[in-house]
Amino acid sequence: MKNSAIVWNIGKACAYPIGITLLNKHFIIWLMRVSIVIFLFFLISLQFLMAVPVNGQKMSDYKVTLKLEDESLLAGIKKIEAQTKFRFYYRKSEIREINDLNLILSTRTVENTLYELLKNTDFSFRQIDNNILLERRQQQGYMLKGRVITSDHKAVEFATIQIIKASNQNIIASALADTAGRFNLTVYEQGDYLLKVSSFETDSLTQKVTVTDAKILQLPDIILNISAIKLSGVTISSKIPLIKRLADKLILNVEGSVYEKGEDALRLFNVIPGVQVTGKDILFRGSESVTVYIDNRRIPLIGDQLLTYLRSIPSESIKSYELKAVPGAENDAQNGGVIINIVLKSEYKYGLTGNLNAGYWYNRYSNAFGSTFLNYRTGKLNVQGNFNYRNTRAFYEDNITQEFKSTGVYSPQTEKYTEHLYTIGYNVGIDYKLTPQQTVGVDFNLFANPGDISNNSITNINYLANKQANSIDSSSYTNRSTTFRYVNQMTNVFYRNKLDTLGSKLDVGYSYINYSLRDPAAIETQFLNAEGVEFHPRDSLFTKTMGKSMIHVANMDLEKYLSKSLVLNVGGKYTASKTDYSINYRSGLNDQSPLDTLQSNRFLYNEYILAFYGTLSQSFDQWNIKIGLRTEQTNYNGLSVTTGQTINRNQWDLFPSAYINRKLDESHSFTLSYARRINRPGFRDLNPFVVYTNLNFIQQGNPNLRPYFSNNLQLEYLLKSKYSLTVGYQNTNNAIATNVTNIGDVIISKDENINDNYNVFMSGYIPVQITKWWEFNTNVTLRYRTIDIQTTPLVHRSKFSQNIWATSKFNLPGKYFVEVSGSFNRNSFYDIYDQFNVGKLDLAIKKSFFNDRLTSRIELQDPFHLYKPQYEINTPELRRNVLRNRLDWSRSVGVFLNYNFSRGKKQSNKENIDAAGNEARGRL
Asked: Could you report the average pLDDT of every consecutive run of 10 residues in the chain (924 residues)?
């Protein structure tokens, strides 16, 4: 009719004849269009009328993929309707109160899915065509009770029990036995049923059960035989590969593997390709440092404390390890080395779960530690906590030779350091589910050394006229004692909102960190002549270093699934830190001695970092691509209160990252990775203080240290999800390195931006299953490294270094497990100086008890005393050779125990929210 209206607006003189003609034309066209539509509608209707009637899709045949986390029955119904043609009919008021339902992600039939959702309710369901009716059961149920045990009368924990209707094989109900092997199930009709019982470590059993008019049916004990051949783990591993490659990370799947039971988080690092635990360090490819995260939270511990904490996490609680050899834009640009994130399992239990750990080892001194982890969940509230205590001795013994080239003076010396300390750490976390999608929580953790029991270093230096001299001209003997103590604490508040069923989520968090230390030291030096008699007054010095840092961190992160294969991550973070350090020098041996105002100093440092990032990842066919960009503004200023010296910087920096993964087939994949990173000096490194080890060796701080940047490019080939080969290139400019110089016979160690570092490497990981009970893994890294040292004169050096690490694991009868591991490092650098070849061999014997709930381990660290690290500094003025004969962690024998306990019904663990403040905490 719109066209007709336009026609009638033609002038009056010819309006009627022309209008009628055009109107008839358009009317005919309109009539033809309507006729065609009516004809098509008739054909479609005819097809429906002539079609043979068919039944609706059976809910026992139609499958859906579903996952619920503390969600309502209504939410589950909507998800089923979204994936099927079924429509549900129910009284909303009756099912509204059915909440807190959980289903692990799996593909099931609609029928089995409904059985799982309604098994603990008084509702039943039935299908009418493509409609499903939910209705409340009117009849009273019949309870079946029983116990599952082994042939030697031990309880079978968490056995799976299913009740199946004998007539149609439908699953009526299912449950898990508790830790005592007991279970109960309810059916609502009399008749014949099949009771199916199965367990991971036993044979399965199916028996007939007849339900009559008895309201409670007590079944006799169900006896399951322990499987003679336990190959189920191998089957599971074939479904979930031990190693999986994504675009930006390598995943080691612990859950379902042979490493799932009887291990701990520390020992499993040796299973990750290229990673090894060496004493107090976790290294990648023999030399690259590792930053440890747990559920995306950085662990702010180093050395013994980190290792103790990792020992307290049982492998039964670990789902996987994520290795990021090239961290991307979503991670802080601050380069803490390779990132390894431990992903804990998301299924804990209602009630109390946890573990206890204890250990004793001897390394010339007696050492002990103990720890516990507890998790309690009830309703929407989850409480989690752990406690660590450690009473240990730290020590080393160095043999040092020094030659001052300008004077020819030669000084062999020994340096012995011993420390008796105890440390404590604890963590308390609470989270609460506001809704099935929204969670709020708070965490508080503290790590502290309340004060050394004793801490001494003794340096004995002999001076000879030259290297060939046979007699000592003079000697010095220095004793340095201190009672170092620190407190490191952090509070984190977080909010998480799960935005959809694909996995989109919004995280908002705030962290407050407070760190303080006190390090008083009394240093006394004696001067002896050739006969060993004091010929000069003793030199006495008392120093007291005090420091505190306060850090505020706010972050917001959004992960949005634009589709199942397209994911967008964006976020921002603001970090504000203030540090206040001071050092007092006194002429004497205590805090009451006269103050030396010329040397004493106080340094104030403020730093503000504003960061924004975005990443986009896309998966299609056999490709997986991820690109990202991070920008950070760094603004800092420092002030020496004593000297008035100031430093400042205000600069924006960009940090791109990119990953391309190409999967050729199930056995072959290639991954190309690139990222730019920044290394900022630690807060304490910027203090312009002089710290005395003795009168002849001092460490000098440097407030002029600048951040430096690095680029990392790698290509990795993964074969059969087991074998890997990586080639890469890394470079840094103006990197921070320790520059050792001397003034006379005084050695000065100072960090400076003097190192340009370029290296190419090739690394291979090869696991070999020699027999069913013998597994051999090895990792080899070959590295060609070039360094240009910006000193006077300029120094250009290069080395081709080799690192090999290998381990043999033996699974012996009686649940005994033996591991022999070793490493060898050849022709490498010690910072910018030469390191000599060094090797190590360790032995561990493990035995499990009580269905793997209790694990005992005997460890022999370096029983053949092979580990004696040695390095040499050789400059135009000085040659200094250091051989470390003894070191606390390198040689010891110890016994370690781990016990896991749990009770209650499986339920989700506390939310894994990133505590953003841990990044800043790592620089304290």
From this structure: 33 37 49 49 41 56 83 87 87 78 83 82 81 75 85 81 79 78 82 83 81 81 68 38 80 79 79 80 83 78 72 78 89 82 69 85 93 84 88 93 91 94 89 88 89 88 88 94 91 90 88 93 94 92 95 93 91 94 94 92 94 93 92 93 89 94 88 93 88 90 92 92 91 94 91 95 91 90 95 91 92 88 92 93 89 86 93 93 92 90 49 49 48
| Residue 562: both structure tokens together | 């634009």
Distance CA 661, CA 714 (A): 12
Angle between helices 110-118 and 73-83 (to 10 degrees): 180
At residue 917, the 3 state secondary structure works out as helix
Residue 579 and residue 923 in contact, taking contact as beta carbons nearer than 8 Å: no
Q: How far apart are the first and last CA of the chain?
A: 79
From CA 731, how far away is CA 729, in angstroms rounded? 7
Q: What is the pTM of this model?
A: 0.70
Span 895-908, pLDDT tens digits: 998 887 765 444 43
Q: What is the pLDDT of residue 233?
A: 36
Rounded-to-integer distance, Cα 402 and Cα 408, Å: 10
Report the alpha-carbon distance of residue 698 to residue 539 in Å, rounded: 15
Burial of 516 (0-12, 13-18, 19+ CB in 10 A): middle
The encoded tokens of residue 827 equal: 């022709």
Buried b (16+ CB within 10 A) or exposed e, 551-562: bbbebebbbbbe
Q: Where are the domains of the chain?
A: 2-50, 63-136, 142-224, 250-921
Q: Which two tokens stand for residue 89?
A: 């009919």
- Please tell me the CATH code under which domain 63-136 is placed: 3.55.50.30
- Architecture per CATH, domain 250-921, reads as Beta Barrel (2.40)
Q: How much is the CA Rg of the chain, to the nearest whole Å?
A: 35
761: number of Cβ within 10 Å:
21
What SS3 class is residue 323? strand
Rounded CA separation 650/637 (Å): 9
- Whether the Cβ atoms of residue 777 and residue 767 lie closer than 8 Å to each other: yes
Question: How far is C-alpha 603 from the chain's CA centre?
Answer: 35
Please report, for residues 574, 627, 635, 655, the alpha-carbon distance to residue 614 in angstroms, rounded to integers and kept in the order given. Answer: 15, 9, 22, 11
Instruction: Tell me the two tokens of residue 689.
Output: 């203080």
Rounded Cα–Cα distance for residues 270 and 266 (Å): 8
Q: What does the alpha-carbon distance between residue 203 and residue 82 come to, in Å, rounded to a whole number?
A: 39
CB atoms within 10 A of CB 455: 19
Asked if residue 102 lies in contact with residue 907, where contact means CB atoms within 8 angstroms, the answer is yes
C-alpha dihedral (53, 57, 58, 63), degrees to nearest 10: 170
- Give start and end residues of each alpha helix (H) in 90-165: 92-95, 110-118
Contact 382, 430 (CB under 8 A): yes
**For position 236, what pLDDT does the model report?**
31
Identity at 18, one-letter amino acid code: I
* C-alpha span between 748 and 741 (Å, rounded): 5
Q: Pull the structure tokens for residue 774.
A: 């013998």
**Distance between CA atoms of 896 and 858, rounded to whole angstroms?**
7
Q: How much is the pLDDT for 803?
A: 93
Q: Which residues contact 596 (CB under 8 A, 6 or more apart)?
A: 585, 586, 587
Contact present, 770 and 809 (Cβ < 8 Å): no
CATH number of the domain at 142-224, please? 2.60.40.10
Give the tens place of pLDDT for each residue, 432-491: 989 888 999 999 988 898 888 888 999 999 998 888 888 899 999 999 999 989 998 989
Please state whether 234 falls in left (phi above 0), alpha (psi between -120 and 50) or beta.
Answer: alpha
Give the per-residue pLDDT at 902.
66
Q: What is the 8-class DSSP label of residue 155?
A: B
